[in-house]
Amino acid sequence: MSDDYLQLKDVSLSYHTKEGEIKALKNINFCVKQNEYISIVGPSGCGKTTILSLISGLLKPSSGEVLFEGKKLDKSIQIGYMFQRDNLFEWRTIYKNVILGLELKGMAKDKQSLERANNLLKKYGLYDFKDCYPSELSGGMRQRAALIRTLVLKPKVLLLDEPFSALDYQTKLNVCDDVHSIITKEKQTVIAVTHDIGEAISMSDRVAILSSRPSIIKTVQEIHLQHIDSPLKRRESPEFSKYFDNIWKEIDNAEKKD
Fold first, then answer.
1. Domain range summary for the chain, segments of one domain joined by +
2. Which has the least CB within 10 A, 68, 101, 133, 187?
3. What is the pTM for the complete model shown?
4. Sheet holding 79-82, edge to edge
5. In this structure, are residues 97 and 142 in contact, taking their beta carbons and an 8 Å threshold?
6. By three-state DSSP, how is residue 204 classified?
7. Per residue in 124-158, pLDDT tens?
């Protein structure tokens, strides 16, 4: 397993506005291992989502570079991106939503890809609902469908931008278990942004904590709960509260220095 599967190397980003230059990120350095789940947390407005935009190619760094397996990341590398809401089209069936990415890439008639879509729907309990419309599904099932839509394209890296924030707390706990199970079985490499410290701890192998803007990585917290097989059970671990306190203090200190 490579330590530098994905790497941000001396990445900085500045915005230019009428008022002048705004520095968002400053010399961000971190590596992500293959099949690792990393969460990024920090004060509000510190640039967490900006990092995902840089990795996905939606933004270009002012300096530094994003590397994949030691080479500059480009459009040939499939990056999956899940947003805060499931973004399912209400007028398309679940199956039609799941194969949307294939259609956009001109792969809608590729037999192997379509078979993968059907297999994922079967594997994760949505095949019997493939002809239903999103409004007929629960919030958790919709999120599962959105994840399957992303996985059909076989992303090398999966980016999650507050993917559970639109769910109520009880649903969120169950969906986190569902998503974690799917990601683990599909051996996905994940970088997630969240404001929920508990979610970050329960889902992640490591948690990167950003400072206030211009953001640097203050510290990276190793999470040693992988022996517990579900995020929900990890929340019940005695170590959970210790991780929570450590991360909360780091974020709180960063906000007070803002």
1. 1-77+187-258
2. 187
3. 0.91
4. 79-82, 157-161, 190-193, 37-41, 206-210, 217-222
5. no
6. coil
7. 999 999 999 999 998 889 989 999 999 999 999 99
